[in-house]
Amino acid sequence: MSEQIIIEIQGVEKRFGSFVAVSDLNLTLKEGEFFSLLGPSGCGKTTALRIIAGFQDHEEGEVRIDGRTMGEVPANKRPTNMVFQSYAIFPHLNVGDNVGFGLRKSKLSRKEIKDRVAEALEMVELGGLQDRKANELSGGQRQRVALARALVMRPKVLLLDEPLSALDKNLREAMQLEMRRLQQKLGITFVMVTHDQYEAMTMSDRIGVMFAGQLKQVDKPEVLYSQPCNREVASFIGGMNFLDAEVMAENSETLEVTVQGFGQMTIGVNPNVQVHDKELLVGVRPEQLEISAEKPEGYDACVQGEVSDVAFYGESVHYYVRIDGLPESIAVAVPNYFHTVDHSRGDTVWLGAQSASVIDLGKRETLGGDK
Amino acid sequence: MAGVLRSDTGKGLILSAPATLYVGLLVAVPLCILVAYSFWTQTYVEIDRTLTWANYQEAFTDPLVRHLIIRSVAIAGAVTLATVCLAYPVAYFIAFRTKKKTLWLLLITIPFWSSYLLRVFSWKLILGFNGVMNSALISLGLIQEPLTFLLYNEFAVVLTLAHAWAPFAILPIYVSLQKIDRSLLEAATDLGCSKLERFVRVTLPLTVPGIIAACLIIFIPTVGDYVTPALVGGSQGKMVANLIQVQFGAANNWPLGATLSLLAMLSVACVAILFVVAVTALGRRIR
Q: I want to staple B258 with a disulfide (CB 3.0 to 4.6 A). Which of A228, B37, B139, B245 is the partner?
């Protein structure tokens, strides 16, 4: 990944009637980056992608790709190519003609087109399937053809609209790794839209999280996970226990807080949070809590509760623990090391938390309520 | 027996039985009678049932028959071409450019609420010597004398039939346009196609089935049409069906009429098959 900027989006706004689909979108993407726009359906992420592709006009703001302002440039003249959610394989053409569709317009000779199509098909591991008819392809193969058809154009930016959502789980996971490898090999900027947090996290260099038309946070996956900027982002990425806390004292790096149920702790200030109230919201990931029958040693805060539910996930076991004075049960995830489920419903257990794993989430707000 | 009735094949047979019977009795049987007649001879009031090739010999040697069959196929071809070319933009408009699809489809069928004969006749009123068209042009001062080339020729037949058959072309083309996944069009644009290239390379090939259906629906019945040529065709607009009608009517020569019918049918079938093969092959060549 170079430092060269490939896409610059400044203050883009798109309204459908009175509905604001994308509001004040600002984003800068670097060349060779794998970027994901993550958010629930209807959050405006696909509209944002279509604005970059040129399929959607926008009211305000500017999109620059590779240094050129895209304002008047129609979709067919933009240095971008797209993998559609439905793959949009031309049903009247075979695989080779589908992949070569965009090249026929170029000044390349028949032989060059043939070679580039063959090369692109090799790249997506469909070598030699040029003559296969479009309706004879499996879902995974269609996805690969769509990818090859876009990549054969050698775009500056490849746009992917939920590219894996139509595939079953195993195939999807295999394709995630494969697409990531392909992207790193080619060094092309990928911009992917997805609602699947795991897909976004496993594939992307950076993720932008969108809610209700607004880009809430843009960060590396690990930062999004450890320092989400608010409750919405925290709840969309991974599991999270939310707790009310009260700020007793603060300095530039730490906050003295009293966390509901857990008591007094000193936690780090989250640099992504903008406003700190005295009334604070904190979060703790289920996998970062300790659960045991005896009071655990060496934890910054411990609290006793009763197991209300147990869910076995295979790779881990989730316990839900009721604690007096807390409105909701606390979820604890324990890796399944020894094929044992140690606690059952009704057991009295201890929870232990390290202050380093308690995340400052800024002011309390109801979900979706901030504007 | 009960097992057979419950099986898929049994159910299929039962469900298709009424249609099979209907087609069998009302198409296959008359067709056989027609074939039989074509080998017989008319003697004033009776039919001579000795088998003979005489009718076919007469049909093939008479230049009038050849001329009329060719003219019928040509007129039907012209009608088909004109109708499909006019219908495609309408179907395109309904499928892609309007949200009030139902309203437009309803509007298109409105001419069908009046009788076919009435619609043909109204064209006669429009195109006639003292018709709407001529009176309008004269009162506008554009012409001094009424135009005589409007009515009673091939042009009038093509115009009248194209109008009558328009909805039959619009509907199948509309359906095939409507079926096109919109993301295919975006994909074509994304891969660099202008709107025209996109139409030629994606939309048109994907509507080939609709175009073929429209062509066959119009071409086949039009070849055998005799009401329109009789009313607006004049002498140069006469078609093979008019000759057939005469054989079964005034000329009282049913065997020759049957022979002509079969020949007309045969030529329609040949042209239609050739057309489908050619268009399908052409559609495959677009890449």
A: B37
- On the question of pLDDT at A87 being above 90, the answer is yes
Res A369: pLDDT:
43
Mean pLDDT computed over A169-177 = 90
How confident is residue A81, by pLDDT bands cut at 50, 70 and 90?
A: very high
- Per-residue pLDDT band for A368 (boundaries 50, 70, 90) equals very low
Q: Name which of A59, A38, A60, A33 is nearest A49 in CA terms.
A: A38
A219, A263: one domain: no
In a domain, A234, yes or no: no
Same domain, A214 and A246: no
Residue B13 tokens read as 């047979």
| pLDDT 10s digits, A279-306 | 899 999 999 999 999 999 889 999 999 9
Q: Which residues of A touch B190 (CB under 8 A)?
A: 53, 55, 75-76, 80-82, 102, 150
Q: Cβ(B90)–Cβ(B170) under 8 Å?
A: yes
Cα–Cα distances (Å) from B153 to A43, B158, B223, B230, B231, in that order, read: 64, 9, 16, 10, 10
Of A75, A91, A97, the CB nearest to B190: A75
CATH class for the region spanning B56-285? mainly alpha
In this structure, the answer to whether residues A329 and A191 fall within a common structural domain is no
Structural contact between residues B214 and B173, judged by C-beta atoms closer than 8 angstroms: yes
Other beta carbons within 10 Å of B267: 16
Nearest CA distance, A15 vs chain B (angstrom): 20
> Is residue A366's pLDDT more than 60?
no
Task: Answer yes or no: do A221 and A270 share one domain.
Answer: no
Q: Greater confidence, B118 or A276? A: B118
Same-domain check for residues A208 and A333: no
In a domain, A174, yes or no: yes
Q: Which of B242, B219, B208 is nearest to B67 (CA)?
A: B242
What is the phi-psi region of residue A298: left when phi exceeds 0, alpha when psi lies from -120 to 50, beta otherwise?
Answer: left
CATH of the domain at A27: 3.40.50.300
Q: Do A243 and A221 share a structural domain?
A: no
Sites in chain B below the pLDDT cut of 50: none
- Do A75 and A150 belong together in one domain? yes
Structure confidence at residue A3 as a pLDDT band (50, 70, 90): confident
Query: Under an 8 A CB cutoff, do B189 and A76 touch?
Result: yes
Query: A97 in contact with B at a CB cutoff of 8 Å?
Result: yes
| 8 Å CB contact of B287 and A93 | yes
Average pLDDT, chain A: 91
Work out how many domains chain A is built from and give that number.
2
Instruction: Answer whether B191 sits within 8 Å of A153, measured CB to CB.
Output: yes
Percentage helix, strand, coil for chain B under 3-state DSSP, each rounded to 5: 75, 0, 20
Is pLDDT at A371 greater than 70 in this prediction?
Answer: no
Query: Is the pLDDT assigned to residue A365 strictly greater than 80?
Result: no
β-strand partners of A62: A10
Tell me, yes or no, whether A73 lies in a domain: yes
CATH code where residue A320 lies: 2.40.50.140
A319 and A244 together in one domain = yes
DSSP B172-188: HHHHHHHTS-HHHHHHH
Tell me which residue range forms the domain holding A38.
5-226
What is residue A278's predicted lDDT score, i.e. its pLDDT?
Answer: 85
Domain end point (choices A168, A202, A226): A226
Distance, in angstroms, between A185 CA and closest chain B CA?
22
Contacts of B287 in chain A (CB under 8 A): 93, 97, 100-101, 104
Domain locations in chain B as residue ranges: 56-285
A166 interfacial to chain B (CB closer than 8 Å): no
Is residue A368 in a domain? no
